[in-house]
Amino acid sequence: MTPICARHPNAYAASPLDRAANRRDDAGFIAATLASPESLFVPLWRGHILLRAGRAALLAGRAADPCRGAEVMAFLGLWEGRAVFAVEFGDRDPDASPPALAEGAEFADLRTAVGSLPAAEAAILAHARALMHWRTRHRFCPICGGACAPASAGHVLVCTRCQAQHFPRTDPAVIMLVVRGDQALLGHAPRFPAEMYSTLAGFVEPGESLEEAVAREVFEETGVRVGAVHYHSSQPWPFPASIMLGFHAKALTEEIVLDHDELADARWFSRADLRDHKMLGFRLPRGDSIARRLIEDWLVSG
Ligand SMILES: [Zn+2]
User: Fold this and answer.
1) I want to staple 41 with a disulfide (CB 3.0 to 4.6 A). Which of 4, 67, 200, 255 is the partner?
2) pLDDT digits (tens, 9 = 90+) for 208-248
3) Is the pTM of this model over 0.90?
4) How far away, in angstroms, is 280 Cα from ligand 1 center?
5) 149: CA distance to ligand 1 center in Å?
6) How much is the CA Rg of the chain, to the nearest whole Å?
């Protein structure tokens, strides 16, 4: 039997940054920290993060000079007194190559690297990725179509035509382990890796409470009705712009009626099944996901 241990906290959470939001409108402070050789820069290329030897390549001093004049940039906060900025280099020319910023460093998908990254670095990189994603996709005002210009150290976009202010957005998604006695409901979506079963999830819709979103998504995808819903924890999920809100939900019914547009399969698994998943020939979600944490915490609770 494979031992499974719950982990705390969720990957990408627990950032060490002081966001220092009260300094964002202090133009003198931002200009001075941008120029400071002590400041750290988190470079991104089309959402990919810069890695060197399995660690985040945060640039400082002369190595950060290419970052200082970048158009898409934001002040993330202070890390042990040093200012940290995020920079996106890959926002314009689709044919351009990524810049060579540091010897031995290369741009990579954060999700492929998170397993080897210190938790603090993973959180800062996730923060940078989420904010830069918003910046690169809100160049124009959704009200009048005018061009937007950054303000507040990159945290606000102001329409140059109608002056509307636009703020970073995060899309809430509920993710839930549905349980009934010693059984938990997991699904396999066509987009998942082969043989991987995971918790159900979906976006919260306008005018809906989180509890209602949990019940609706579970019923839509599997036909199972849920009753009590208990909050577990949350996880920033910048792939590209979500916050995952994790729940354990108690099922009132067992019969599964699949929504084949969403899921290829859904099954009830016992705790023993989940602990022995490798021998039984299926996979659980990635270790950096809140889905895995919802499963592991349920396993150790029974
Ligand atoms: Zn406008």
Assistant:
1) 67
2) 999 999 999 999 999 999 999 999 999 999 999 999 999 99
3) yes
4) 56
5) 11
6) 22
